[in-house]
């Protein structure tokens, strides 16, 4: 008990360290992102993207792009720089940072500090030059790298390293989105489609809160978005609208997943130098940006406008077209090898979906029945939940980012429907596992589960070779050598009275084996098992008592032999189930 308390306190203390470092990296990343955006989009293209309210955005924004023709050029240059850095310095810095961290968690892979820092740089360049990518990817990978690196430094166990990795991942996301509670939940939820890494929950909460406090000292503590969501009320129109939003969100999420993997397949098979792939993807993203500015950068400022019901610079047809174009831009950015995350753009896609439906419903009904801000927020929750199968953390994240807690009743309707319709056979995170039993890191748990659910009668050998107590030892030796077996039950009729093993036989001198009876060397009243016992119970007996096999009897009254089971039988069964 004392040792367990010490281990818990140690992990909590280390989680604080992870949170502090993750918070500092978050602040550094956000500053780098601002600098990169000002340089690429501001100075070269002459475009200043709108910002969300929590980052200084507000009234008076004027949309203007001085050099529109340079937009695809700049996004291509950003991709070229990223391609060069990734190819020559750290290939693992490409793609979705959160997914890289999930893979490292399940397969015990290292996350180098060089890769984490490079992820910060390449993501800042990708997003700052106009790539459609998210902030959470680099911070998830950096936070995970901090946790795993600290565990390696202190030579912790694999389990402790993974808990710190998960805590760091949640800390990075919680700090960058200013959503510490969601970060804590993500540290346990994001690795699985239908399960939680429960042991990481408390360390994840602690690391995420600390990271939020540290990062906030540099970038502020305001929620990312400002919303004014009215108190929820229900009517047949309202309920029907959010049901439709849930259905549409499921299709949008499936379209997002399909498009992303299809674009990635195309770029993986593209016969050009790897350095050029992010440049090609970036150029195509720039073309999408010429149609809709929502396809450029992280677009949080545009989502902020939608939350306020503002469509000053975007016509309704362009807003509709923005859904597939932002999906395509995200897929081109990350599928081509650009750096960043999929979380933020998925929220943007969901927000646009909600805004489009609110406008459509209001035009159809001829009245302002649906609040655009509310449907924007619910769309964010619903699409990402369906795409990533992370409902709890997503709804808490969006609630913290917007302070829009009045949205929860509507969100529960849409997100539940969206997730169930979309299913979770394939999510936006390729390395997510269905549950803990599918994760290689929990292989021992899987073995225990399989052994617990399998019965002795499913595995035992029923065609058992037996001897009587009066048989000579030489007969036992010859049978063991010919049949490659290490133990033979001794029976009188069908009743088990003993067992003789190879080690018993070897104790008899060779010249005396013909005269010596089996009853003189057998183990009387051997440990027997029943057909309906589970294999886990049998393995515990084998391990604790040092046995390699046991006769299986019908019941302990008659001791009638019905089979025999050995460690080898159980091992073969595990191999057949694919866990050894």
TrEMBL record:
InterPro entries in UniProt: CBS_dom, CBS_dom_sf, Cl-channel_core, ClC, ClC-type_chloride_channel
CDD domains reported for this sequence: Voltage_gated_ClC
GO cellular component annotations of the record: chloride channel complex
Compartment(s) of residence: Membrane
Keyword terms, alphabetized: CBS domain, Chloride, Chloride channel, Ion channel, Ion transport, Membrane, Transmembrane, Transmembrane helix, Transport
TM helices/strands, residue ranges: 12-30, 69-90, 163-188, 200-221, 242-261, 281-303, 310-330, 342-361, 373-399
CBS domain ranges (all copies): 460-515, 522-580
Predominant location category: membrane
Annotated membrane topology: Multi-pass membrane protein
PROSITE patterns attached to this UniProt entry: CBS
Pfam family for this entry, one: Voltage_CLC
A Gene Ontology molecular function term of the record: chloride channel activity
Protein known as: Cl-channel voltage-gated family protein
Species of provenance: Thermovibrio ammonificans (strain DSM 15698 / JCM 12110 / HB-1)
């Amino acid at each position: 008990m004392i040792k367990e308390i010490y281990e818990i306190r140690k992990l909590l203390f280390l989680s604080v360290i992870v949170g502090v470092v993750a918070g500092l990296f978050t602040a550094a990343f956000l500053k780098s992102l601002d600098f990169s955006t000002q340089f690429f989009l501001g100075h070269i293209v002459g475009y200043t993207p709108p910002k969300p309210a929590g980052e200084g955005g507000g009234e008076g924004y004027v949309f203007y792009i001085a050099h529109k023709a340079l937009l695809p050029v700049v996004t291509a240059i950003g991709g070229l720089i990223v391609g060069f850095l990734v190819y020559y310095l750290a290939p693992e810095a490409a793609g979705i940072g959160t997914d890289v961290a999930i893979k490292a968690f399940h397969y015990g892979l290292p996350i180098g500090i060089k890769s984490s820092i490079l992820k910060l740089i390449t993501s800042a360049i990708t997003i700052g030059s106009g790539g459609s990518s998210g902030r959470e990817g680099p911070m998830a990978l950096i936070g995970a790298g901090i946790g795993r690196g600290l565990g390696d430094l202190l030579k912790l166990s694999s389990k402790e390293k993974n808990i710190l990795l998960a805590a760091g991942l949640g800390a990075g996301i919680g700090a960058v989105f200013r959503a510490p509670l969601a970060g804590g939940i993500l540290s346990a939820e994001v690795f699985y489609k239908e399960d939680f890494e429960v042991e990481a929950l408390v360390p994840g909460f602690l690391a995420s809160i600390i990271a939020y406090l540290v990062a906030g000292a540099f970038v502020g503590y305001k929620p990312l978005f400002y919303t004014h969501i009215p108190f929820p009320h229900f009517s047949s129109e309202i309920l029907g609208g959010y049901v439709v939003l849930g259905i549409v969100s499921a299709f949008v999420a499936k379209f997002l997943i399909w498009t992303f993997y299809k674009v990635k397949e195309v770029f993986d098979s593209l016969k050009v130098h790897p350095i050029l792939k992010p440049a090609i993807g970036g150029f195509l993203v720039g073309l999408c940006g010429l149609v809709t500015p929502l396809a450029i950068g992280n677009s949080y400022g545009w989502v902020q406008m939608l939350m306020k019901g503002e469509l000053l610079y975007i016509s309704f047809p362009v807003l509709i077209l923005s859904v597939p174009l932002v999906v395509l831009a995200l897929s081109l950015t990350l599928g081509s090898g650009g750096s960043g995350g999929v979380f933020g753009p998925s929220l943007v896609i969901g927000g646009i979906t909600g805004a489009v439906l609110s406008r459509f419903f209001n035009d159809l009904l001829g009245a302002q029945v649906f609040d655009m801000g509310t449907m924007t927020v619910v769309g964010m929750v619903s699409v990402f939940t369906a795409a990533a199968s992370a409902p709890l953390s997503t709804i808490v994240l969006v609630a913290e980012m917007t302070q829009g807690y009045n949205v929860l009743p509507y969100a529960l309707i849409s997100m539940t429907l969206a997730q169930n319709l979309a299913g979770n056979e394939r999510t936006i995170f390729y390395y997510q596992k269905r549950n803990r039993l599918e994760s290689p890191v929990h292989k021992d748990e899987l073995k225990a589960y399989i052994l617990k659910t399998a019965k002795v009668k499913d595995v035992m050998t029923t065609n058992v070779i037996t001897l009587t107590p009066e048989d000579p030892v030489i007969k036992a030796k010859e049978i063991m050598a010919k049949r490659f077996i290490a133990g033979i039950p001794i029976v009188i009729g069908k009743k088990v009275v003993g067992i003789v093993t190879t080690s018993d036989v070897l104790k008899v001198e060779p010249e005396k084996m013909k005269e010596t009876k089996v009853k003189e060397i057998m183990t009387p009243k051997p440990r027997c098992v029943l057909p309906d016992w589970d294999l886990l119970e049998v393995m515990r007996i084998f391990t604790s008592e040092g046995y390699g096999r046991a006769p299986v009897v019908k019941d302990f009254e008659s001791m009638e032999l019905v089979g025999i089971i050995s460690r080898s039988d159980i091992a073969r069964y595990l191999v057949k189930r694919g866990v050894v």
